[in-house]
Design a protein that fits this description.
With 612 residues, this protein is an alpha/beta fold. 37% of the residues lie in helices and 23% in strands. The strands form 5 sheets. Strands 3-2-4-1-10-9-11-15 form an 8-stranded antiparallel sheet, covered by helices on one side. Helix 4 crosses helix 5. The two termini are 30 Å apart. Bound molecules: 2-deoxy-2-amino glucitol-6-phosphate (AGP). 2-deoxy-2-amino glucitol-6-phosphate binds next to helix 11.
Length: 612
């Protein structure tokens, strides 16, 4: 998720762009850049934060009243100066800033190279700006029409703004799958990824809809058309909410925003990596080492915290589908226990931040002992990503809330693809079953949207149990790691003690804890062990435990036993964690709010534990 800002009008553009980028830094902050038209094209861009960009700006060349700015969350190419936006076309005439992913950029790049284009960065964005240039040249058409034609050729998601140094009176903006809002001032226009850079100048905005582009002129005129070239007009809306709420997308907290972003984050993590109808999976990092991975005698998954819970689900998936032995290790233990590792092992290191010290140290040890390291990270170019031989990014976008939510669900999506691709290579999964699972994986974002509709009901349950001093979370099979994750969510943001346990393990001790003061959250969507789960629920009920059960829609037996029923959409058992975690994230969030806790920055915690 990147931050985009543009300005055309009668004010100095530079201060507006810089301030706007600072407002958007929560969307991505690994590089930033600005392009201005002032007699020519002046571009400043730098890896790092906006404050790093400001240090390199030559203030003798910033006078301009049209410009664009970008703060990057890298998806293609390391976060460095060359890959920073804006990107310039071969002729030097066009500048572009882009938020999103162009899936078919490689084939377009190859074609443009044949036509004599050269590229300086690893980004899909530089390909797009040269495609626009090539279209304008060959079609001998206007820039806005060239943008429209070019966007009809690309596959993926984008929000873009394009400048032409030969026309300082026009900006072109377009969107598909990434937001763009136009602020309408007095003979001036602002463009941004959201209203945060705009609200201090004007409250009058127009939101571009899917597959629309806008031609914005200095004379206060603008037009909106669809990529199908149909003129559109939009009602001018009045911004009501505060700047702080805008940064949180209208949500009270980043954590809630990120819980609600999970459908889109999962779509982004799967984008271009699978095709259900054709039954293929394409994980670049995996293909590069597929022989070694296919011959691996064992997978070791190492991580910390929530990422370790994703790893447990990975163990169930890989053994269940690809029939290869898997061990899951806390990185902090793995690095000190003198583990037996060989070149026959593949170590999968999972980390949202890509900077967790224990996980990094675990990788070093495994590398020294000749294992292949496969990184699953959310931050492009992070230390763990760079320390890995290969890997895949989760593309969840920046996760600001300290309590991990969308990172967890995108890690699981990605590990599911890894397990499925392994099973395909090993022939342990019939193609028909593979396609069935991929079709269902495509349905998961919609089913999470459906599950999010339970928010109000979950908030009511939270109000009943917000003063509990202990919680138990119980699950079997794929839901056991979800029980652990649900307990961690509650612990880390509400400070209530909570434990996750395999449901059957209760009778080996923890059942002594059960009384009328103990809320017990059951994850009871399993088909394979349903009757066992029913017995576990009965055991708790017999001891007066308060039962909150997450069940499939239409469940009948547990309904009779539980104090509260949360009915979630059915899905493939192996995909159930993607659904069953959502009510637990919401339960933890609401309880923490009701207890007056700081959910985005809980006490004692950091977003990335870069120390031992
Ligand atoms: C989870 O909500 C916590 N923020 C924490 O357990 C986190 O998952 C852990 O520190 C690992 O971080 P990483 O994924 O960035 O490596």
């Amino acid at each position: 998720m990147c931050g985009i800002v543009g300005y055309i009008g009668n004010k100095e553009a530079f201060p507006i762009l810089i301030k706007g980028l600072k407002r958007l830094e929560y969307r991505g902050y690994d590089s930033a850049g600005i392009a201005l038209i002032n007699g020519g094209m002046t571009v400043f861009k730098k890896a790092g934060k906006v404050s790093d960009l400001e240090k390199i700006v030559d203030h003798n060349h910033i006078t301009a009243n049209i410009g664009i700015g970008h703060t990057r969350w890298a998806t293609h190419g390391e976060p460095n100066d060359v890959n920073a936006h804006p990107h310039i076309s071969q002729s030097g005439d066009l500048a572009i800033i882009h938020n999103g992913i162009i899936e078919n950029y490689s084939s377009i790049k190859a074609e443009l190279k044949k036509r004599g284009y050269t590229f300086h960065s690893d980004t899909d964005t530089e390909v797009l700006v040269n495609l626009i240039e090539e279209v304008q040249k060959t079609e001998k058409t206007t820039l806005d029409n060239a943008v429209r034609i070019a966007l009809n050729e690309v596959v993926g998601a984008y929000a873009i703004v394009v400048l032409n140094r030969n026309n300082p009176d026009q900006l072109i903006a377009a969107r598909k799958g990434s937001p763009l809002v136009i602020g309408i001032g007095d003979n001036e226009f602002y463009i941004a990824s959201d209203a945060s850079p705009i609200i201090e100048y004007t409250q009058n905005v127009v939101y571009l809809d899917e597959q629309e582009y806008a031609v914005i002129n200095r004379n206060g005129q603008y037009s909106i058309r669809t990529l199908g070239n149909v003129e559109k007009s939009h009602e001018i809306k009045k911004l009501e909410f505060s700047l702080e709420l805008i940064e949180k997308g209208g949500f009270e907290h980043f954590m809630l925003k990120e819980i609600y972003e999970q459908p889109k984050a999962i779509e982004d993590s799967l984008r271009g990596r699978m095709n259900a109808s054709k039954g293929w999976i394409k994980l670049g990092g995996l293909n590069e080492y597929i022989t070694r991975i296919d011959n691996a005698e064992r997978f070791i998954i190492t991580a910390c915290g929530t990422s370790w819970h994703s790893g447990l689900i990975g163990e169930y998936l890989i053994e269940d589908l690809a029939r290869v032995p898997v061990e899951v290790e806390y990185a902090s233990e793995f690095r000190y226990r003198n583990p037996i590792i060989s070149d026959k092992d593949v170590v999968i290191a999972i980390s949202q931040s890509g900077e967790t010290a224990d996980t990094l140290a675990a990788i070093d040890i495994a590398k020294d002992r000749q294992a292949l390291i496969y990184g699953v990270c959310n931050v492009i170019g992070s230390s763990i990503a760079r320390a890995s031989h290969a890997g895949s990014y989760t593309h969840a976008g920046p996760e600001i809330g300290v309590a991990s939510t969308k990172a967890f669900s995108t890690q699981i999506s990605l590990i599911t693809l890894i397990a499925l691709q392994l099973a395909t290579v090993k022939g342990t999964l019939p193609t028909s079953k593979l396609r069935e699972i991929l079709y269902e994986l495509e349905n998961i974002p919609k089913k999470i949207e459906e599950t999010l509709l339970l928010d109000a009901q979950i908030k009511e349950i939270a109000a009943i149990y917000k003063d509990a001093t202990n919680f138990l979370y119980l699950g079997r099979g794929y839901n056991f790691p979800v029980a652990l994750e649900g307990a961690l969510k509650l612990k880390e943001i509400s400070y209530i003690h909570a434990e996750g346990y395999p449901a059957a393990e209760m009778k080996h001790g923890p059942i002594a804890l059960i009384d009328e003061n103990m809320p017990v959250v059951f994850l009871a969507t399993n088909k394979s062990a349903y009757e066992k789960i029913v017995s576990n629920v009965q055991e708790v009920k017999a001891r007066k435990g308060k039962i909150i059960a997450v069940v499939h829609k239409g469940d009948t037996q547990i309904r009779e036993l539980a104090d509260h029923i949360i009915e979630v959409p059915e899905t493939e058992e192996i995909l159930s964690p993607l659904i069953t975690i959502v009510p637990l994230q919401l339960l933890a969030y609401h309880i923490a709010i009701m207890r007056g806790c700081n959910v985005d920055q809980p006490r004692n915690l950091a977003k990335s534990v870069t120390v031992e």
